[in-house]
């Protein structure tokens, strides 16, 4: 097991991750096992019409924890990036984070995802509390994603 995977597993055993699991906010996708460095997790969302109550994210944790995670909205049945019709919809920051017109849905467009930050170095100063730092845990990705999905900005799919 790599040091990154070992660190990730320690973070999964930590208080803050498990507090979110117990509250029904996020967790590991039940049908998946960790195949390092790819991991599928879910984040809950409130009831909005026919929208699912959970959205899946497929993480690439290469370089974790020194390098921040990147994740895409994931269709576990198709084992593919979630198509535009199934992505969370809404306004404001939620609309931006789950946008479908950027990099073919390869990653969330937000400062806690390492992929867009690599092409937006100004985000490091603009969003200092959200941009990944080596002392962060996976909760630093899951919490703001959960907050967006559970905000008034989220309207469903």
Label the overall shape.
globular
Order of helices and strands: HHEEEEEEHHHHE
Q: In order across it, which strands form the biggest sheet?
A: 1-2-3-4-5
Which class of secondary structure composition applies to the elements?
alpha+beta
Overall pLDDT confidence? 95
Give the biggest beta sheet: 5 strands, antiparallel
Spatial extent as radius of gyration: 15 Å
Write a structural description.
The mean pLDDT is 95. The protein is globular, with a radius of gyration of 15 Å. The longest helix is centred in the last third of the chain and has 11 residues, at 139-149. The strands form two sheets. Strands 1-2-3-4-5 form a five-stranded antiparallel sheet. The protein is of the alpha+beta class and 157 residues long. It has helices at residues 3-12, 15-22, 92-97, 114-118, 123-126, 139-149; strands at residues 26-28, 38-44, 54-60, 70-75, 80-81, 89-90, 154-156.
């Amino acid at each position: 097991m790599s040091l990154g995977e070992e660190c990730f597993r320690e973070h999964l055993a930590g208080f803050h991750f498990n507090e979110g699991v117990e509250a029904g906010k996020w967790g590991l996708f039940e049908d998946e096992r960790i195949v390092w460095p790819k991991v599928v997790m879910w984040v809950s969302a409130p009831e909005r019409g026919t929208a699912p109550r959970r959205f899946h994210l497929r993480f690439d944790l290469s370089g974790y924890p020194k390098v921040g995670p990147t994740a895409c909205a994931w269709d576990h049945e198709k084992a593919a990036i979630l198509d535009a019709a199934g992505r969370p919809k809404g306004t404001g920051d939620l609309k931006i984070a789950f946008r479908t017109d950027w990099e073919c849905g390869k990653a969330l467009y937000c400062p806690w995802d390492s992929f867009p930050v690599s092409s937006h170095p100004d985000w490091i100063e603009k969003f200092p509390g959200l941009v990944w730092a080596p002392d962060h845990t996976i909760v630093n990705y899951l919490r703001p994603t959960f907050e967006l999905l559970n905000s008034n900005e989220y309207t469903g799919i």
